[in-house]
């Protein structure tokens, strides 16, 4: 029972903070009203033994007020907050107006306090606009009471009113007014404290937000710098890749690679070393700037495995980095590179072997982080592959050139034999006829004045020439000469193909003759005389000889050797 009463008089709690605050204020007001009603009822009950006018009416009013307060509290437990606020404000206005009509109207000084309580209650429950609205309603009620007084509709204030009744009225108004003002001040203080807490929380949130924004801006700036650097690295890798795929000669390749690396990585100097044939020295082969030119002129070299960063990395096939060259003991300094502050030596490794090293030097200490070293090492690997490919290409070119020279010599000799054997005669176009060159004299002398002579070449070897004549007054143009040269080059290709075809046919015929004669000889009787007779016959028939003789004879030298 006690728990139920406690819950009944306790303010409900809702998820909405503002609704919970308003419910708490309503609960306190209802408690005050019920308490004031009970106190006033008790005072009037104690004074009921004395006769004075208005006791019964006051008990009715107080009882009605307590009943309304109980109903409103019950509805408050159901979450009906805003309508209860309006209902309570209107109830208080109605009670004060009822009291004014029955207890002296505006002559009763308690009425002014009652209407003031209505405005206070409306302001606390409904806000400033509620206070304004109920002030307007109070003015209307006061005007109505005044009109009623003028028409004698209001009961006059009795002079015999009991002092206890007046005391009860004043105590009720003062109690309710004081408690309501106390709750108003408390509510205002709580609201102010909440505002302060919210302000402090907002300040802290703003500080945290500013710190987060600064952190994010810093991270974005760092990320942007990192992306820009990675973009530069990718562009440098792409340019180096294009260079090594488009340049097949070692010296131009090395020169362009070191310039690209120095420019893209903003380095002080980049040098490239290649191991010599003995495997003892790393020779300086390419470099940037004036220092690179001087080192090339001096034929600068470092001992592999000696006291130098390049020598160490070439020996161990590992990168060596000096973030401060003054602290590096295994380093050879050069007067032309006096401004170096940090250096990275990277091996050039291809197919599991070191062929040289790449020296990257900066005029800033600590210039080579892990990302930079990884990109430089990847470039060094690309350069090593490119150098190896260039060397293989050069070797292949030399072998191909030797093969071309050998084949060209063979082809030239074959054409010389063909010309001597009459397989490649010459022809002339004379008087709209094609005749052998040896018969040109039969057509009379030529009267041409302009002659164009173009060689017929096969694999670099001249096997003949073409003479073209124009009549006097005509000139050979460059376009005509170029067109004729193209046609004659195609003529050389066609002649070489025809010669190879004829050689193939001739070898095939010879192989066929050999196979046929060999087969017939083997098919003869297995005696010496039969084999000799069959061979003589086959040789004479195969080559169309008028006479063929095979004679067995053992010379004394052969006899001596035999013995």
Radius of gyration: 62 Å
Strand content: 5-15%
**What is the strand arrangement across the widest sheet?**
3-2-1-6-5-4
The stretches of 5 or more residues where confidence is low (pLDDT under 50) are: 49-53
Order of helices and strands: HHHHHHHHEEHEHEEEHEEEEHHH
Shape: elongated
Helix coverage percent of residues? 55-70%
Overall mean pLDDT stands at 77
Largest sheet: 6 strands, antiparallel
Task: Tell me the distance between the termini.
Answer: 151 Å
Q: List the total number of helices.
A: 14
Number of strands: 10
Structural class, please? alpha+beta
Could you please describe the fold and organization of this structure?
- Residues 49-53 have low confidence and may be disordered.
- By secondary structure, this protein is an alpha+beta fold.
- It has a six-stranded antiparallel beta sheet, sandwiched between helices. A two-stranded antiparallel sheet has the order 7-8. A two-stranded antiparallel sheet has the order 9-10.
- 24% of the residues are buried.
- It has 14 helices and ten strands.
């Amino acid at each position: 029972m006690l728990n139920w009463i406690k819950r009944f008089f306790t303010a409900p709690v809702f998820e909405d903070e503002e609704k919970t605050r308003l419910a708490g204020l309503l609960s306190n007001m209802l408690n005050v009203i019920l308490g004031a009603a009970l106190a006033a009822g008790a005072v009037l009950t104690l004074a009921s033994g004395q006769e004075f006018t208005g006791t019964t009416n006051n008990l009715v009013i107080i009882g009605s007020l307590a009943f309304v307060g109980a109903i409103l509290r019950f509805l408050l437990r159901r979450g009906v907050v805003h309508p209860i606020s309006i209902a309570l404000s209107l109830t208080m206005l109605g009670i004060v107006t009822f009291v004014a009509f029955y207890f002296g109207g505006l002559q009763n000084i308690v009425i002014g306090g009652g209407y003031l309580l209505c405005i206070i209650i409306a302001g606390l429950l409904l806000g400033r606009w509620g206070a304004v609205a109920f002030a307007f309603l109070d003015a209307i009620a006061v005007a109505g009471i005044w009109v009623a007084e003028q028409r004698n509709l209001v009961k006059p204030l009795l002079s015999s009113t009991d002092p206890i009744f007046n005391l009860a009225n004043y105590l009720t108004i003062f109690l309710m007014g004081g408690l309501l003002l106390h709750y108003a001040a408390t509510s205002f203080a709580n609201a102010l404290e909440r505002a302060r807490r919210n302000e402090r929380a907002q300040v802290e949130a703003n500080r945290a937000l500013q710190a987060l924004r600064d952190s994010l801006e810093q991270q974005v700036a760092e990320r942007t710098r990192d992306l820009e650097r990675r973009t530069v690295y990718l562009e440098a890798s792409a340019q180096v890749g294009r260079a090594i795929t488009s340049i097949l000669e070692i010296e131009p390749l090395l020169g362009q690679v070191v310039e690209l690396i120095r420019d893209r990585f903003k380095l002080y100097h980049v040098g490239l070393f290649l191991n010599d044939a003995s495997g003892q020295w790393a020779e300086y082969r390419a470099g940037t700037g004036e220092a690179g030119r001087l080192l090339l002129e001096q034929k600068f070299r470092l001992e592999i495995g000696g006291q130098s960063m390049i020598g160490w990395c070439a020996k161990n096939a590992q990168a060596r980095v000096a973030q401060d060259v003054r602290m590096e003991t295994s380093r050879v300094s050069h007067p032309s590179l006096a401004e170096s502050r940090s250096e990275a030596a990277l091996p050039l490794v291809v197919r599991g072997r070191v062929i040289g090293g790449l020296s990257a030097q900066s005029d800033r200490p600590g210039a080579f982080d892990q990302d930079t070293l990884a990109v430089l090492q990847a470039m060094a690997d690309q350069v090593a592959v490119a150098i190896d490919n260039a060397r293989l290409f050069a070797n292949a070119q030399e072998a191909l050139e030797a093969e071309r020279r050998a084949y060209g010599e063979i082809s030239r000799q074959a054409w010389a034999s063909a010309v001597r054997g009459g397989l490649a005669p010459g022809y002339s176009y004379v008087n709209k006829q094609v005749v052998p060159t040896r018969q040109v004299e039969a057509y009379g002398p030529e009267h041409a004045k302009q002659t164009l002579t173009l060689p017929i070449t096969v694999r670099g070897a001249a096997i003949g020439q073409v003479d073209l004549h124009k009549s006097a007054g005509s000139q050979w143009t460059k376009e005509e000469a170029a067109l004729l040269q193209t046609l004659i080059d195609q003529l050389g290709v066609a002649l070489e193909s025809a010669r190879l075809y004829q050689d193939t046919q001739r070898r095939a015929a010879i192989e066929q003759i050999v196979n046929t004669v060999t087969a017939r000889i083997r098919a003869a009787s297995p005696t010496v005389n039969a084999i000799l007779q069959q061979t003589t016959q086959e040789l004479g028939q195969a080559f169309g000889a008028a006479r063929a003789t095979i004679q067995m004879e053992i010379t004394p030298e052969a006899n001596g050797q035999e013995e």
